[in-house]
Amino acid sequence: MSLFARESADGGRSVRHQPAELLRTAEELRAATRFGAPGANAVVMTMGALHEGHATLIRTARERVGDQGFVVVTVFVNPLQFGAGEDLDRYPRTLEADLEVAFEAGASAVFAPSVDEVYPGGEPQVRITAGPMGGLLEGASRPGHFDGMLTVVAKLLHLTAPDLAFFGQKDAQQLALIRRMARDLNFPVEIVGVPTVREGDGLALSSRNRYLSAAERRTALALSGALFAARDRLAAQEALRARAEALPGAQNRGEGRAEGLSRLGEARAAADAHAVAQAAEGCGAEAVRAAARAVLDDAAKADPPLVLDYLALVDPADFTEVSDDHDGEAILAVAARVGATRLIDNLPLLLGATLSTTFGATQ
Q1: If exposure means fewest CB atoms within 10 Å of the residue's CB, which of 167, 274, 292, 299 is most exposed?
Q2: H, E, C per residue of 300-321
Q3: Is position 54 annotated as part of the catalytic site?
Q4: The pTM is what?
């Protein structure tokens, strides 16, 4: 069903994209995906209730495949990834608004199938299992969630046959598992991670944000606040360490970092002995956790309170907790409930190295 043809300005000339369509069946999808130029088909998978975060994924996909590429956005609330007591029935379904967001952002088509279309024989007996990583953090809090997620992602990758698939870094563990599945099972697709999009106050964009009252939202800001506090603590440690190492004659004397920091004699260092000690060791993992937890502990006393599910500093490769002497990439991840709403957030960090940037981080 062709809705309209989109046009965009390109250097003063009009560029006509492929017809924008709403597709309901696998047969319609197979016919539509033939429109794209070879090597330039992309998919953005969503459960609907599209917001600016989803629009960013779609725009990024459109930029990658160009005007002659085909970008399909899937809108499907997958029952397999909802556990007992979770919000399957409550999950927002706003297809008309989703179509407007998707097509405005550059989608060629929206594939919005029914449950029967995706699972024609009922719940599938053969499913993808998430393995050891699937039992950690989100997997421990939501048993079976990642098995259901990977099963539907695998089906949608087969149905859409993309060259590229775009997912948000906000769901960092999901992204890591999808990458692992694509690698382990030889899916011929490039999995592209897109940095987290945040609202002006720092809260990560989520369809669940709409459930928060004004008071609950104020408490929920502790999630991003904890991540930013940890990032800032790490940056301060690295600055102290760099200045200590740069002291004249420090290397010639064989002076260690602890001695250098001691000689530095900064009022800031004296006021925060723990941070100085961590900086001297060159790691900062313990201080990163402590800085984040301090913010979350304060939010637990708020009205309404934040109820922490987990705070973890993990290796992005397998989502296991990093050691205190970890050197390299890590992800600081947090999940908590405010009222009846469960929220997650994360921030990539770089430990034990000059912190000029973090990998993939946005505020």
Answers
A1: 274
A2: CCCCCCEEEEEEEEECCCCCCE
A3: yes
A4: 0.82
